[in-house]
Amino acid sequence: MKQIKGNFVPQALNNTSSLPAVSASRPLRVALFGFGTVGSSVARILLESHPAGLELSHIFNRNVARKRVDWVPDSVVWTENAEDVLQASSSNGGPDVIVELAGGLDPAGNWVRTALANGKSVVTANKKLIAYHGLELEAQAAAQGLHLLYGAAVAGGIPVIPGLEHGLAGDRVDRVEGILNGTCNFILSKMQEGGDYAETLAEAQQLGYAEADPTEDVAGYDARAKLSILTRLALRAQIHPEEIPTRSITDVSAIDFSYARDLNCTVRQIARAGRIDGELAAVVGPMLVPLSSPLAWSRGTENMVVTTGHYGGDVVFSGHGAGGHPTAVAVVSDLVGLAQGSCRIALPSTPAKVSTELEVPHYIRFTVSDRPGIVAAIAGALARENINLNAILQRPGFPLDRLPFVITVEPCRTSALQRALKEIARLPALLEPPLDMQILEK
Amino acid sequence: MKQIKGNFVPQALNNTSSLPAVSASRPLRVALFGFGTVGSSVARILLESHPAGLELSHIFNRNVARKRVDWVPDSVVWTENAEDVLQASSSNGGPDVIVELAGGLDPAGNWVRTALANGKSVVTANKKLIAYHGLELEAQAAAQGLHLLYGAAVAGGIPVIPGLEHGLAGDRVDRVEGILNGTCNFILSKMQEGGDYAETLAEAQQLGYAEADPTEDVAGYDARAKLSILTRLALRAQIHPEEIPTRSITDVSAIDFSYARDLNCTVRQIARAGRIDGELAAVVGPMLVPLSSPLAWSRGTENMVVTTGHYGGDVVFSGHGAGGHPTAVAVVSDLVGLAQGSCRIALPSTPAKVSTELEVPHYIRFTVSDRPGIVAAIAGALARENINLNAILQRPGFPLDRLPFVITVEPCRTSALQRALKEIARLPALLEPPLDMQILEK
Ligand SMILES: NC(=O)c1ccc[n+]([C@@H]2O[C@H](COP(=O)([O-])OP(=O)(O)OC[C@H]3O[C@@H](n4cnc5c(N)ncnc54)[C@H](OP(=O)(O)O)[C@@H]3O)[C@@H](O)[C@H]2O)c1
Ligand SMILES: NC(=O)c1ccc[n+]([C@@H]2O[C@H](COP(=O)([O-])OP(=O)(O)OC[C@H]3O[C@@H](n4cnc5c(N)ncnc54)[C@H](OP(=O)(O)O)[C@@H]3O)[C@@H](O)[C@H]2O)c1
């Protein structure tokens, strides 16, 4: 970049890239890496909608023969040799852009590094790769004047990442809360209507909404990867996904929905992060959501993100967070941006440690073998940590030797509650460890 | 732009503007035109948050002396001479960017033209100017390699425009529906809780949510300007705002909320546009919204936009559509984009005529002097136009000589319904013209 001298016009204004960069040059050649759910949807949209300036040129997949479909024109090269595509010079028929849609850290990460090293920009939907290696890969891309776009990595087809980058760059976002995993939301919103966990999980698997091994989703690993990306873009804080305390939804049962209802709440898997007294707090797990909150409106596999800005207040985004076509919309939108010479807005971020110390109200369900004395013992343990009881809920109709009841407590420090629950867990009347969920405030 | 030859790298990929363009050059100098609600909020954010690469340099307003505030540093030039600022060369301390926040078509339009003619990019929140002259001004900006950004012009602080441009460019949006006017939403959501129109309007005026002359808002002119902008960006169709059939909310009364409730609906001012059988339909006015629709969740001055994509399905955006700070967030986000050498995605659009012929269900309220025979007469008029009656609702407790009752009809063509209503209006028992509202489908 030049020095400022005399009649200098700032580079930003000298840049004519809002004119479609493609009009006078050939289209960008696009190579898909991975022809599964999202990859084939991206091919569909590219071939049906013909967005200006983009040409599908290569499809790479292992054992590619079984992937061939008749609706892809003959001009497209099908291959199972990744290196060939990554090394092929774009001046020699090679692709200009690699669209990584295989998933996982390896070999996807190496493809992306090799693509960038060979002068090819990259679009990906791979939240895991971006959560773990996004910073490093963005730096590699920027150092070479290339682009790494991943609008599909969080909330699929909902433009949360573009919204944060282009629409909220001028705010100071203090908090982000979201429903980031469609599988968990499907299961929990079905349970709200009366299903039980195992049945609903089986239904989700049958409908293709949950994997045979649902751990990644129900344990919260998928959501925490996405939350770490949102935390960087919204709160400008770099955190490692594995530092985010994550609780599985598997312990939530039908009875929790009844008690939640009594509290004018429902239960959802929530991913939330915020700056509290200069500390960065982040957490993923099932939580009580007030029925009056937009987060309680989400049904089925829907995703939703609520950002809270210092200047602009709450902004809600919702829609289809997953599925081949919605996710492909975000991928193709990134490609259209590339074709037009667009660029992401660089939102500066700094490394942060995740604080586990929150001060929020909690819902705690106890399952006990008999009632007399137990409430006093629990209340005593809480009182010793200065935790104020808010409500005690007990529905009729349960056997006295296996009695679930609920205590809600006023906002208290996580560490204090954990000490109290540890003491409570030692009470002989307790049949299983207490289930503790945060309650979102209205 | 160069011809493709030999080792050609497409321009789009050769563009390094994702690196903050500001890092090696001086900040962009920003001149505010208009220091009212939004203008002063933009100044606040620029001075409090110091977004990289931006410097507030000028504030222009008529009779500027009374606008001075002590929190703006001395380096900023206050002026009431627009031409001086617009003509000042940026190599000579003049601004690089004009932020137009005065509003209206004149003189705002001329400032924008002069700014562009003098090599200055423009950011504006002026929906009216963009609705009426956006295409022409964009062409002027593009022809000079400059930028015209207006992310704040629709739905204030909610990133609907950035979302459409950067996140949904890859979809084919078939429909857009929204609550685009905070004043109307405040009035109607208060009426839903039992207020009457005149009282609620007075309250809105007292709270600063409605102007002394509320016509622009309640008659739907503000919403139709915004709808015409959304129609261009989402549906890629250029329509003139004055071609959009627009109905005022002033005829909606408490009784309509009771009847709507019986139909599991509420009433909102809705702006909607869609492609139906190749025709472009658009309309603004009070409509019945099912309580299950996200559009019914909006409260107070909130705005909401729902887009329906062929590939990605429904996406919902909601938040603060107005107010100085939220609107300023969108303005500053556009400025951050400019400072980083970013650009908008050009979404190609073509001229379209607005079809007034929709086929949707309707709610029609009649106020009659006596009941016998009137239903038969109305039903007959509808039947002659092949319009099917759906429900007849009549609440008890009204005087027989001034009886409001409601008929809902199945989806029917607008022209047919209008013919029938014209005939019905001639019935002597009718005390006032029927109030007809579209019913949104779930
Ligand atoms: N599906 C969604 O709704 C969604 C939403 C947002 C983001 N994403 C992300 O998008 C990416 C793709 O997801 P998807 O649902 O499309 O997955 P998918 O259906 O499993 O497709 C992945 C494709 O990549 C191929 N592949 C995987 N590993 C490979 C390797 N080592 N070498 C060659 N080919 C390989 C697979 O081939 P085989 O058939 O041989 O396995 C398959 O065709 C993932 O990062 C995912 O997290 C998906
Ligand atoms: N307020 C919102 O919530 C909102 C939301 C979205 C978009 N917008 C748009 O943002 C723009 C500004 O709105 P606003 O609410 O900030 O309006 P405002 O409070 O009335 O401010 C407008 C400012 O511009 C000045 N001005 C107007 N005409 C002028 C002229 N001919 N010459 C010199 N100065 C002039 C006014 O000066 P005086 O004090 O002398 O009148 C006033 O200071 C409008 O286009 C509006 O549609 C506003």
From TrEMBL, chains A, B:
Xref: InterPro entries: ACT-like_dom_sf (IPR045865), ACT_dom (IPR002912), Asp/hSer_DH_NAD-bd (IPR005106), HDH_cat (IPR001342), HDH_CS (IPR019811), NAD(P)-bd_dom_sf (IPR036291)
Pathway assigned to this chain's UniProt record: Amino-acid biosynthesis; L-threonine biosynthesis; L-threonine from L-aspartate: step 3/5; Amino-acid biosynthesis; L-methionine biosynthesis via de novo pathway; L-homoserine from L-aspartate: step 3/3
Pfam families assigned to the protein according to its UniProt record, in alphabetical order: ACT, Homoserine_dh, NAD_binding_3
The reaction(s) this protein catalyses: L-homoserine + NADP(+) = L-aspartate 4-semialdehyde + NADPH + H(+)
E.C. designation(s): 1.1.1.3
Domain of life: Bacteria
Keyword Metal-binding belongs to the record: no
UniProt entry keywords in alphabetical sequence: Amino-acid biosynthesis, Methionine biosynthesis, NADP, Oxidoreductase, Threonine biosynthesis
Domain ACT: 363-438
GO molecular function: homoserine dehydrogenase activity
Entries under PROSITE patterns matching the protein: ACT, HOMOSER_DHGENASE
Matches recorded under Gene3D superfamilies: 3.30.70.260, Dihydrodipicolinate Reductase, domain 2 (3.30.360.10), NAD(P)-binding Rossmann-like Domain (3.40.50.720)
UniProt xrefs under NCBIfam families: PRK06349.1 (NF004976)
Entry similarity comment: Belongs to the homoserine dehydrogenase family.
Protein name, per record: Homoserine dehydrogenase
